[in-house]
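Researcher: I've been going back and forth with a colleague about how Acyl-CoA dehydrogenase might be arranged in three dimensions. Neither of us has a model we trust, so I'd like an independent prediction. The organism is Parafrankia soli, in case that matters for your notes. Sequence below.
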Amino acid sequence: MVVDLAPEPAVADLAERTARFVRDVVLPVEERHRDPVPSEAVRRELQDAARKAGVFAPHVSTGYGGHGLDMRGRAAVFEEAGYALLGPLALNIAAPDEGNMHLLEAVASGPQKERYLRPLAAGEIRSCFAMTEPAPGAGSDPSALATRAERVDGGWRINGRKWFITGGDGAAVTICMARTSGSPGDAGGATMFLVDADNPGMKTVRHIETLDQSLFGGHVELLFEDCEVPDDAVLGQVDAGFRNAQVRLGPARMTHCMRWLGIARHANDIAIRRANERELFGSRLGELGMVQQMIADNEIDIAASRGLILRACWELDQGRSAAQATSIGKTFCAEAVWRVVDRSLQICGALGVSGDVPLSRFLREVRPFRIYDGPSETHRWAIARRAIRQHAAAAR
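Model: Here is an independent structure prediction for Acyl-CoA dehydrogenase. You can compare it with whatever you and your colleague have in mind.
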């Protein structure tokens, strides 16, 4: 059996052009704008430049102005975009918009696609996905969903509170998960609703300060208080929200891994450059065994992460659930990216903790990934349960 991990020629070309665009356009803009979150003007400047470079919206189908890449194709391009913190924003593949576009393209009705997906794919609007709730509501356990939607004449009334809603500041539409049947703890009974930003029943309570700071629109707390939406605001089917969420969650975990792998590569490149230049104790850093071991471990973590991403993407492209592969890939990559950035900072010593290189910022940005999209402990629990069930089934 032939195993060829190289991307198709068209994908390889797009990845190469993306790498060049990030190096020549995005990184200089990132250097000029040291604020953690760029302005709306910078976002539009970068996205206009990405359009002109022909690298904009690689994940969206051609009918909505994108390149229509499958998951394996995205892996190559997203990694190159992720080499800069603002690279995904420039290509319109940053979270949560990228995952929401994927969801809308798969689940939304025709009118919903025209109203929300088309302007979202064009970068004209932004979006957010509101599922996580303060305790004891939905978090690592989505079935704890407490926000509730009740039928009213012509639509639904939503009541509940959401927090850590990435991109919530300035989002034109919120995809809100609310319980339409059952009780918290039940495996089903959730529905997705499209809520416009001007709905008077949805309010931003506060901006939550977090360790990471570069995600556009921040992390906000939202209050849904007698928030009324029409029937055509239902995304997908009533009571099918948890099932439809899987359309988004597995691929979104992998695209997170792809983007952060780009940052890990960037950190490793900074460390290798420093190891080649810095001289002490009569030799270059790169000639010292302990530094060589850290660089080697970085290379191993990067290569292993890429392999796990490609495996999970292959399963997703085959139409499989890929639950085990995405959990394994997400858990390993989240921890491997942290290790790579941490080792790179250590190799650079005092320079690494300074603002002269972006390693300390990278470290802050990648640490929460071990919690976002399911903490490593939850994924390990799920991985073990599946393995045990599979072993038990094979033994029968």
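Researcher: What would you highlight for our discussion?
Model: I'd start with this: The beta strands are 127-130, 148-152, 155-166, 173-179, 190-196, 202-207, 219-230, 234-235, 279-280, 283-284. After that, consider the following. The longest strand covers residues 155-166.
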